[in-house]
Amino acid sequence: MNKNYKDDLFYVCSMIEFTARKTHNKTKDIVKYLTNEDLEHELKVASVNHCLSFEQVCDEWIQKYSIQEGNFDNITTCKYNVPTYLSIGKVYQRLILATTEDNLIKGIRNVYNSFISEEISNFNSNVYYSNPDYLRCSFLEGTLLS
Questions:
Q1: Which residues contact 56 (CB under 8 A, 6 or more apart)?
Q2: Contact 43, 104 (CB under 8 A)
Q3: N or C: which end of the chain has fewer CB within 10 A?
Q4: What's the number of CA atoms in the CB half-sphere (13 Å) around residue 49?
């Protein structure tokens, strides 16, 4: 996988986080709004979209994919410094790349629809800034390792 593809994945993961926050959805819910073809398209246009503001692309996603307002809020309930959407995008990018062998779209869906996505979104825990290898091993085990 070339570096640009990794950057495109980072952008899409960051956009998923940004859109989830703006619409008060969980990240897995945002991924559910996108078909496999939509995810492939967003990966292809990421190198162009990164020149636009996250706000603009988010608004386009909301309209294009009919993303509805949710009721999830992990920002105002956070007791500590809220990680940036880019920081969380990097966590997902690393985890997807570390656990996906061939089908990136399947890897995206597997990670976002797993238990670990809930754990990463809990900003009152330390999971989102845990060692990437710990996250990979926990994901593969299906539970947080102690």
A1: none
A2: yes
A3: C
A4: 22
Q: What is the CA radius of gyration of the chain?
A: 14
69 within 8 A of 24, measured Cβ to Cβ: yes
Task: Specify whether the CB–CB gap between 33 and 66 falls below 8 A.
Answer: yes
Backbone CA torsion sign across 75, 76, 78, 81: positive
| φ/ψ of residue 87, rounded to 5 | -60, -45
Residues 6+ apart with CB under 8 A from 23: 30, 62, 67, 68, 69, 70
pLDDT 10s digits, 43-88: 999 999 999 999 999 999 999 999 999 999 999 999 999 999 999 9
